[in-house]
């Protein structure tokens, strides 16, 4: 840290970091984000005061700096608070520039079929024993939106042990665990070997389950490979080819509906491509089987909307977007259901295919990953 300067009669402060990078912080922001024990609970870090307890006329009366800390005296209460310089550098908001709609976090890497042999994968027993290996696996899920796990037990309910590594099962009308059991040449057409287009699950829920686990118990049929597609890469390609199409799919809501079980009628209204207010790409919902009538698009935009919808569907179906693998008993994969679409290829011949599935949520996974990463920083 080089210098500190009070700005605008105490409404803000300017810090010049080594290398000449200048960042400004408002007095109200600094006071609201104080980390002292009277502002934040020492045990859990939760804020102890409301914004209404901070004067609307809060000003910086004095400020000094050294290599590690910024010391600020506020008026009108005369409180002196010390801030960690590194924390301020990490949380600086000055210099944030607007970006084009559809940008993705630096924590994310989009991909296509070129991912090839780099499919993220870990061993069940290893991630179960060591936080380091678990952290690496969770990091890959955050980065790529999916990952495999091998070497697991071949037993009913084993997928619950996978979820327990980072969080909790999200129970739905399908139960805690649902069966994906399909036999070739079945005596019931419900158990068919037909392929399925890549899709996100349960788009008719709000919120959707943000993670899905599929665990293999039997897979002796010919075919039946699992396939995943990065919905974010598909959205990026659509944006590059047709900015208007991308805008339409992200601006207008699609509708999804499910009434397939007695006593259940689920509906949602969300865009197929979901952006944050600042344009960050945060979600894709795509499931032709569960789509209901689109009624939120104006007449003059409907033709172009369907053109973009069709192109998004074509991109998802293209082989150069798809990563394919066949699970063996004791193997599973997990997908970020807000990003990665999954499918299966059709199968034929003798044999059977039995997977168990369940849902979970990303907040537990990201929480566990954050804890592991913090432990690594302290090590």
TrEMBL record:
Q: Where is the TauD/TfdA-like domain?
A: 122-359
Top-level EC class: oxidoreductase
Reported EC number(s) for this entry are 1.14.11.1
| Pfam families according to UniProt | GBBH-like_N, TauD
Q: What keywords sit in the KW lines? A: Dioxygenase, Iron, Metal-binding, Oxidoreductase
Q: Does the keyword NAD apply?
A: no
Q: Does the keyword Cell wall biogenesis/degradation apply?
A: no
A GO term, aspect molecular function: gamma-butyrobetaine dioxygenase activity
Q: Which cofactor does it need?
A: Fe(2+); L-ascorbate
Span of domain Gamma-butyrobetaine hydroxylase-like N-terminal: 8-88
* NCBIfam families cross-referenced by the UniProt entry: carnitine_bodg
UniProt lists the family membership as follows: Belongs to the gamma-BBH/TMLD family.
Report what the protein is called.
Answer: Gamma-butyrobetaine dioxygenase
Organism annotation = Paraburkholderia metrosideri
């Amino acid at each position: 840290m080089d210098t500190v300067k009070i700005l605008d009669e105490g409404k803000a402060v300017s810090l010049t970091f080594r290398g000449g990078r200048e960042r400004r912080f408002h007095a109200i922001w600094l006071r609201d984000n104080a980390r002292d024990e009277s502002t934040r609970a020492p045990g859990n870090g939760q804020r102890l005061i409301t914004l209404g307890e901070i004067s609307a006329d809060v000003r910086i009366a004095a400020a000094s700096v050294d290599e590690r800390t910024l010391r600020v005296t506020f008026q009108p209460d005369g409180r002196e608070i010390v801030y960690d310089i590194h924390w301020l550098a990490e949380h600086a908001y000055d210099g944030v520039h607007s970006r084009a709609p559809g940008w993705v976090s630096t924590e994310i890497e989009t991909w296509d079929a070129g991912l090839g042999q780099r499919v993220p994968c870990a061993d069940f027993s290893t991630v179960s024993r060591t936080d380091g290996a678990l952290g690496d696996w969770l990091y890959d899920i955050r980065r790529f939106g999916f990952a495999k796990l091998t070497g697991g037990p071949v037993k009913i309910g084993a997928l619950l042990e996978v979820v327990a590594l980072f969080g909790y099962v999200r129970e739905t009308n399908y139960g805690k665990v649902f069966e994906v059991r399909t036999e070739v040449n079945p005596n019931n057409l419900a158990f068919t070997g037909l392929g399925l287009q890549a899709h996100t699950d349960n788009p008719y829920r709000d919120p959707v389950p943000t993670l899905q686990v599929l665990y293999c118990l039997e897979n002796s049929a010919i075919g039946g490979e699992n396939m995943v597609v990065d919905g974010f890469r598909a959205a990026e390609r659509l944006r590059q080819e047709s900015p208007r199409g991308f805008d339409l799919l992200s601006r207008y809501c699609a509708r999804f509906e499910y009434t397939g079980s007695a006593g259940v009628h689920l509906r949602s209204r969300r865009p197929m491509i979901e952006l944050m207010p600042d344009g960050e790409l945060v979600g894709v919902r795509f499931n032709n089987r569960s789509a209901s009538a689109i009624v939120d698009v104006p007449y003059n935009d409907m033709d172009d909307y369907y053109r973009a919808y069709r192109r998004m569907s074509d991109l998802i179906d293209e082989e150069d977007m798809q990563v394919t693998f066949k699970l063996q008993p004791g193997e599973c994969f997990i997908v970020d259901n807000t990003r990665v679409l999954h499918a299966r290829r059709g199968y034929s011949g003798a044999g059977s295919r039995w997977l168990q599935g369940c849902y979970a949520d990303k907040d537990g996974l990201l929480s566990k990953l954050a804890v592991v990463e913090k432990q690594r920083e302290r090590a």
